[in-house]
C-alpha cells in the first residue's frame, strides 16, 4: 500500500465536505447540471414571489419547459419517456426541491403517480393517448386517492364506481390533490364490486370538478385541489385494466416516495448552504457568527445529517436500478430524510435569526414546505410502523 500524507491532499470543498460528488458518474452529474441550469434560469428568480402569491403564473408554459428536458416520467421507458436511471431521477428530484418542494411535487405527481399509474397498470390505448403528451408537458395529470375522511387507510375510501350497462358511474370526493386545479387528466381510485379499481378521467368530463384549496401556508407554489365526482360517466375503456386492488395505488405511492427520499435532501442542502454562507457574512461582537462554537456545532450537525441522508438515498437508488428495492427500504428513506431535512431547516432558521423568517432567504419557505412533505405520501407514524413491523415481525397498524 502506498502511503499518502492526508495533509497533502486538497482541502475538501465546504459545499461538499464529504466529496459526495465523487460517487456519481459523468452522466449523472450531467443530469444534475442540466436540471439546475434550467431551474436557475426559469424558476429561481421568481419562486419566492410565486410562493408568496400562492401560484405559479404560466404553469403550463413551465410544464412544457420541464418536459423538454425529460423531467416528466424520466425513469419510465417508451411513449416519449426518457427511460433514465433511478439515480438520475433522484438527482433531478433533489435539484427540483432545492428550488422548491412545490415544484418537485408538480414533477412527482405527474411522473411517479399519474403517468406511472397509466404506464404500469393501463391499457395500450390509454398509454398511447396520454403518456406522450404528459411526458412533453403538453398535458398535466393528478392522482386521486386521499379523501376528506380517508388518509392513511385508503382501504376505507368512500368514492365508488358502479356499472351502468357498459359504462361506469363515479361518485365521491378526493382531497389534497396536487396539480388538480390545472390538470387535464386525473387517475381516480374508487371502490367497486370487484375491489379497488383505477380510472383515467379526462377533467372535462361532465360531473367532474377540481376546486382549488386556498389559504395554505405550505407548498404554496403548488396548486392543490379537491376532486368532486358527481355522477361522472366513463366508458369501460377508462378503467385501468391491470390494477385490481390497493396494490395499484400503493405501487404508485412507492414510486413517489422514492423521489421524496431525494427531494427532501434538496431542501436540506439549500438551507444548509444558506446558513453556511450567512454564518460567514453576518458579523456580531466583532467577528462572523461562524467563528462562534455554537454556530459551528449547528452547521456540523446539519452537515452530518445531510451526508448520511444522501448516502442512504444513493444506496436506495442503486438498489432500485438493480431491481432489489423493497417498499420497506423506501419507507426508511422517506422517514429519515424528510425528518432530518426538516430539522436542518429549523436549525438553519436559527442561524439566520430574524432574517430566517424572511422570503429574502429560502429557509422559511423550505421549512414550511417540509411540514407538508413530512405528512404526504405516508406520515411519519405510518413509515415508523412499516419499519417497526420489519424489525419485530409484528404489525401495529391497527
UniProtKB/TrEMBL annotation:
Co-factor(s): FAD
Domain of life: Bacteria
Domain Acyl-CoA dehydrogenase/oxidase C-terminal: 251-388
Keywords: FAD, Flavoprotein, Oxidoreductase, Transit peptide
Domain Acyl-CoA oxidase/dehydrogenase middle: 142-232
Annotated GO biological process: fatty acid beta-oxidation using acyl-CoA dehydrogenase; fatty-acyl-CoA biosynthetic process
Family affiliation: Belongs to the acyl-CoA dehydrogenase family.
Name of this chain's protein: Glutaryl-CoA dehydrogenase
Organism, as annotated: Pseudonocardia thermophila
